[in-house]
Automatic annotation (TrEMBL):
Polymerase that creates the 3'-poly(A) tail of mRNA's. It is an enzyme of class 2 (transferase). Belongs to the poly(A) polymerase family. It comes from Otus sunia (Oriental scops-owl). This is Poly(A) polymerase. Its main location: nucleus.
Amino acid sequence: MLGKRAKTILETCELKKGVFQDIFFLLLLSLQYIFIFFHQRTSRLQNQLQRSHGITSPISLTPPKDLDCIQTQKLVEALKPFGVFEDQQESNHRLVVLDKLSKLVKEWIVELGESKNLPPSTIASVGGKIFTFGSYRLGVHTKGADIDAVCVAPKHVERSDFFQSFFDKLKHQKQIKNLRAVEDAYVPVVKFEFDGVEIDLVFARVSMPTVSSNFDLGDDSCLRSLDIRCIRSLNGCRVTDEILRLVPNKENFRLALRAIKLWAKRRGIYSNVLGFLGGVSWAMLVAKTCQLFPNALASVLINKFFLIFSKWDWPNPVFLKQPGESDLNLPVWDPRVNPSDRYHVMPIITPVYPHQNSTYNVSLSTRAVMVEELKHGLTVTNEILQGKSDWSKLFEPLNFFQMYKVGLVESKIRVLVANLERNEFISIAHVKPQSFPGKQELHKGSKYVSMWFLGLVFKKAENAESINVDLTHDIQSFTDTGKPIFCSSLVEFHVFILVEGALQSDLCFPLVLTIDSSIENDV
C-alpha cells in the first residue's frame, strides 16, 4: 500500500516536472522573441533616425519637461520686441508679391520664346518658376526683411536675357522701385523693391526645354551641364530645402534659429563678408543641434547650441549628413584633395552636392571672437535655465568700444610730452593720466572720442612782459608721426591752448589734446 502511494506520488512529480519544463521552455522562447522584437524595433528606429536626420546618433531623446515649455514661452515673449515675427497681413502681402513676380517671369519667358521663333507647341509649355531661399524659405525672416529668390528658366533663356530684357520688363512695372543689377557679383543678382517688399533675384538656366510647376530642385541631375553661376544660384534653394529636411522638428528649429540669429546680430558676429558667420551657416549649426537633441524645445536647444559649439574641436568640420558622390565631377570641399581647403579654420559644410564650406571667409581672429561669444552665451543661458536671469540678457548688445581701449594712441602721448619738453620756453609738460569723453563739436558727430589734458608751465621771460610761444612744430611732429601708425582709427587731432586756469605768476596753459578714435568709417 505504501509502495503504491509512493509510486503514484513519484509519477505525479514526474508529470509536474515535465509540465514545468514545458512552461519554462515556452517562457524562455517568448522572452527571446520579445528581445528580438525590441532589438529590431530599436535598430530600425535608430537607423531611421540616422537616415533621416544626419550622420550622428542623438545625444539625448529626453522628452520636454514642463519647465522647458515655460522657458520656451518666455523666449517667445522676449523675442517679440525685436520684430522677429511678422504679422499675418505682412505675410499675406509677401505671398501676393511673389505671385505677381512669378507671373511676370512666365510672361517674359513666353515673350522671349516668341522673339526667338520657338514652335507654338513649345512656347505653350515652357513654364518658368520662382523659388525662394534663405531666411524666407526657412521661415525665420523678420519684419521688413528682404526675400531671396531664384528665377529658374528653360534652356532657350540666356543669362544676358535676364539682365537685359527681363530687367527692362521690371523697369516698366509701376510697383517696382530701386531697380539695379549687379552682374559681376559672386552670384549675379537683380535687386529691387516690389510693392514695398525688397527682393534679391538671381538667375539659373537649366538644360531642359521646359520648367514645369512641379520642377524638383532636389535632384542633382538638374545641375547637369550648367555653368558655375547657375549652380551657385540653384544651390541657395537646394541647401535651404535640405536643411529643413534634415531637422527632426521644424518649428523647434525655427524658433531656436530666430533667437540665435538675433543673438549673433546683437553681439556683432553676423556677417559672412567680414569673416563671421552668415545666415546659412548659423542655420546649419542650429540644425546640427536639433539632430543631436531631436525632442528638445527651443529653450533647451539654444543652451545645447552654445554648449556644443563653444567646445567644438575646430577645425573639425560640421556635417549635417554624409557627403554624397556624383558623376557630375563638380569641385567639392575635401581637404584630402584640395590643399586650400586645409587652411579653412571653421568649416561648416553644405548638405547638398556640390558640398562647399559656407565659412571660407572665417579667420583665426574672427573664430576666436565667435568662440568667446559662444562661451558667453553658454554662461547666460545656463543662468536663464536656472532661473537666475531672463532671456533679455542673452540679447544685450555688445559694446564694442568698451572692449578695446585707446591704448595705442595713449601710449604715444609721451612722444608729444617729449616734444614739448624740448621747447626752449617750456619748463614742465604735465599730462593728466585720466582721459575724458570728447566734446561733440570737436569730432564731427562721432561718439567714440577720448580727450587728454596736458598742463604746460612756461619759463618766465626776462626783460619782456609777454612772449609768443609757437607750439605748431611740436604738435605737428606728433600728429605727423601718429597718422601713418593709426591710419585706420586715428581720424584727426584737435589741439587748443586755453588761457583759463593759469597757475599764479607762472604762465601756465592747459593744453587740450582731443583724439578722435572713432572707427565707424571702417565698420
